[in-house]
Structure formats: C-alpha cells, structure tokens
C-alpha cells in the first residue's frame, strides 16, 4: 500500500507541472506583453498630445506684413478689360418644310444681305398655288354674277355675302401659298461671314430647322462692367480708346452706345462700346482688349496695395489689425490699377491693413506684424 501511494504521488506531480507549462505560463506571458503594449501606447499618446499642444500654442499667433492707407494723387481715368463680340450676329432657321434642292454657301463664305443661301423643292406648293388661283378666279366670277342677279331678285343679299366670303377665303389661300413659295428661297438676312452651316443638299428641313449662322464683324462691340463711382461719369455717346491685346501699341476709337440703368447681381453696370473693325489690324470675335475711359485731371484719394484684398473686387474686404487681432473689414473701392486700389470708404489713414498672410488667418485671429 505504501508503495502504491508513493507511486500515485509521484505520478501526479509531473502532470501538474506539464499543465502549468503548457497553458498557464503562456497566458501569463501574453498578459504581461499586453500590459507592456498598453503602457507604451499610452506613453506615445501622451507625447503626441503634448506635441499637439505645443504646436497649437506655436500656431496661435500668425505672422503678417501690413500696409497703411495713404493719400495719393490719382488720375480720373480708368481702364477695364473686356471681350470683343460681333455687332450683328444671327442664327436663322427654316420657316417652311421641304427638301434642300440647292446649297450655295460654305463655312467661311462672306455673303451680302439678300444673297440666296439655299432653295427648297417647291413643286407641290406651285401646284397648290395654281389650283388656289383658279379657285379664286371662279369665286370672283361667281360674286360678280350674284351681284348682277340680286338686282333682279333672283338671289338674296345673304347669298351674295356668302359668295364674297368664298372669294375672300380663296384670296387668303393664294396669298398664303405665295408667301410659302417665297420662303422656299432662303436668303441671308444680313451681311457677314457664314458659319455653322447645318444643312446639306438633299436634306429635309422642317419648320424651325437650323440653317446657318451669319456673323458680321465689320463692326464689333465690347461689353464691360462699371462700378458705382465709374458709371456716374460715363455717358452714352462718349468716345473711348480701345487697345487690343493682340496688337501692342495699337488703339482703336470707340463709342459708348449703352449704359445699363440697373446693376446686375455683382452690383456692376453693363456698358456696351461699339467700334469699327480695322482692316489693317483685323480682330475676331472672342478676342480681348482694354478700353480706356479718359476724363482728364487728377484727384487726391486714399489708396492701398492691391494685394491687401482678402476678398474679390466684386466683394472687397481687408483684414485690419486691432489690438493684435485681425478684423475682417468690408470696404468700398473706386479706381483699380495694376498694383493699387482707391478706397472710397471703410478705411482711414494710420490703420494697419494686412498685406501678406491673409490665407492663414480668419476674423479674430491673433497676428504678429513682421517686416
């Protein structure tokens, strides 16, 4: 019995050690490793938070450069950019249906007003017109007969009126067909260059089918938009000078033909200028240039550099430094040239206006002025 008990005890001890090594020890090691990873992550997060806090503190104050509004002598004249567009341009369409019998133009051809562009097959219209004329002649003859018969009492006045109505209807039919026949000969309504020919010989046209565009660039127009303080000085009929971007040192005289009485959505007034396209320096529709409005004389005005603008010229705003902070301020501007702006209201001399660094700041941002 003693030997048996000794044998059992000796058999159980190795088994317990084997379970500990196979199961419990790996679990303990895993827990220790997990605790080490958690502690490491926590330490890294603390460092990252600290670095972020330092970064935030560093970025609280933004460096900027400033300029002060100053009084300068500025000219009353001003220039504006614009595009050239045709004075006359027409996209015309077919007014009747029919198959194209002849086509007499191609893209790029110059045509005079009244030139035949194309003709449509009109045989059926001619047949209908001949029949309508015969019907009209008969209606006239019947009316004359009834008018002679009414005197003898063979017919009454109501019958005469019916004959007159038949004649009028037949006459209207003839005139309608004559007009339709005329429309089968398609002529250019204006003089100009043909573009975007949309038909070809043999194609069938329905009413409203696009035929071609006629563009007249012998005279051109330029459309520009004026600010409040500019539009009050510009009058219809005023002479201006136009400088095409294509031809350096070249100017063309033009005339203001219209000034809108009402501002558009951008609070600007559309103004149109007409000028003759020079033969020596010909221009095309879509080209660009500058127009100079000349008034003569100068004036004293408050100005700031153009780069001070934080908004667009349509909605001008600047950042003004007050107590170490940037305050977004709306201003009203006047004349604008290549590097400075006339300030009508919103700023005074001595103010410090942010010149560079606007992209990094918002209204209320702390700033530091650097040179």
What would you say this structure looks like, in words?
This protein has 371 residues and is α+β, with helices and mostly antiparallel strands. The protein has three domains: 87 residues, conserved putative lor/sdh protein from methanococcus maripaludis s2 fold; 84 residues, Elongation Factor Tu (Ef-tu), domain 3; 116 residues, Helix Hairpins, CATH 1.10.287.470. Helices cover 32% and strands 36% of the residues. It is built from four helices and 21 strands. A hairpin with a 7-residue loop joins strand 11 and strand 12. Helix 2 packs antiparallel against helix 3. The longest helix has 58 residues.
Features:
single chain, 371 residues, Helix Hairpins, six-stranded antiparallel β-barrel, four-stranded antiparallel sheet, 4 helices, 21 strands, 32% helix
What does this entry show, briefly?
By secondary structure, the chain is an alpha+beta fold.
What's the arrangement of secondary structure elements?
Elements: H1 2-59, E1 61-67, E2 70-75, E3 78-93, E4 98-103, E5 110-111, E6 116-120, H2 123-152, H3 157-183, E7 185-187, E8 192-195, E9 204-205, E10 210-226, H4 228-231, E11 239-244, E12 252-259, E13 269-276, E14 288-293, E15 298-305, E16 317-322, E17 325-330, E18 332-336, E19 340-345, E20 353-356, E21 366-369
Parallel strand pairs: 1-21
Antiparallel strand pairs: 1-20, 2-15, 3-10, 3-14, 4-6, 4-9, 5-8, 6-7, 8-10, 10-13, 11-12, 11-14, 12-13, 15-19, 16-17, 18-19
Helix pairs in contact: 2-3
| Poorly predicted runs of 5 or more residues | 1-11
The tally of structural domains comes to 3
Helical content class: 25-40%
The CATH topology name of the largest domain reads Helix Hairpins
Form type = elongated
Structural class: alpha+beta
Largest sheet: 6 strands, antiparallel, barrel
Gyration radius, in Å? 44 Å
Separation, N- and C-terminal Cα atoms? 103 Å
- CATH evolutionary superfamily of the largest domain: Helix hairpin bin
In CATH's first tier, which class of the largest domain applies? Mainly Alpha
Mean pLDDT: 86
Tally of contiguous helical segments: 4
Strand content: 35-45%
The appropriate CATH architecture of the largest domain is Orthogonal Bundle
- In spatial order, strands of the major sheet run 3-10-13-12-11-14
How many β-strands, per DSSP?
21
SSE string, helices as H and strands as E: HEEEEEEHHEEEEHEEEEEEEEEEE
